[in-house]
Design brief:
By secondary structure, this protein is mainly beta. It has one domain: PCu(A)C copper chaperone (Immunoglobulin-like), CATH 2.60.40. It is built from one helix and eleven strands. The longest helix is centred in the first third of the chain and has 14 residues. This is Copper chaperone PCu(A)C. It holds the Pfam family PCuAC. Keywords: Signal.
Length: 189
């Protein structure tokens, strides 16, 4: 638990820098741009025409999640990465997720120990009002345990990301087995 607290503290400390400039920024739903970036009317932050990737984003009570993805795998676990924006006026907690394709899902943090990478379970992680959090490789992730099938590049599945106020539903995309970010495959830019 000591390592989990250290990872959580380290992560929260890193949020204090760049994201604090976005505090107080309020955008009515649907959100079409990242905080601080200008885009053409009718396009979202990735250049998609309005609603073009609506399956790849979820909204609930002022919280928006988008671009959820895992790497192609035949293993029994997978890490899910996603962008989460808290456009509400209250602080929230990210607590985990649920999906029919895995026995359980837990919030985990990256740790390098004895030259080996590990992801250790974490307690709920706070996200302040008006800020964004990106779950990425070598950072925070949602670990899908007990996968019920293999996943190939280009496939999708449904996931519910859980927060202290409830959950939001969205689709997650399967990327290449060695992907380091969401590819936007199937989206036009």
């Amino acid at each position: 638990m000591k390592h989990a607290a250290a990872i959580l503290f380290s992560f929260l400390f890193s949020l204090a820098g760049p994201v604090s400039a976005a505090e107080g920024h309020k955008t009515p739903e649907p959100v079409h741009a990242h905080q601080g970036e200008a885009h053409d009317e009718g396009h979202d932050d990735e250049g998609h025409e309005g609603g073009e990737h609506s399956d790849h984003e979820g909204h609930a009570e002022g919280v928006r999640a988008l671009h959820a993805w895992i790497r192609a795998t035949s293993d029994k676990t997978a890490l899910l990465f996603v962008e989460i924006e808290n456009t509400s006026d209250r602080d929230i907690l990210i607590t985990g997720a649920e999906t029919d394709v895995a026995e359980s899902v837990e919030l985990v943090g990256f740790q390098l120990k004895d030259g080996e990478t590990h992801f250790i379970p974490l307690p709920p992680v706070p996200l302040k009002a008006g800020q964004e959090m990106v779950l990425t490789p070598n950072g925070l992730a949602l670990r899908l345990n007990g996968l019920k099938r293999s996943f190939g590049k280009g496939e999708e599945f449904e996931i519910e990301i859980e927060f202290d106020f409830g959950h939001l539903e969205m689709h997650a995309q399967v990327e290449d087995a060695n992907a380091t970010r969401h590819s936007h495959a199937g989206h036009q830019h």
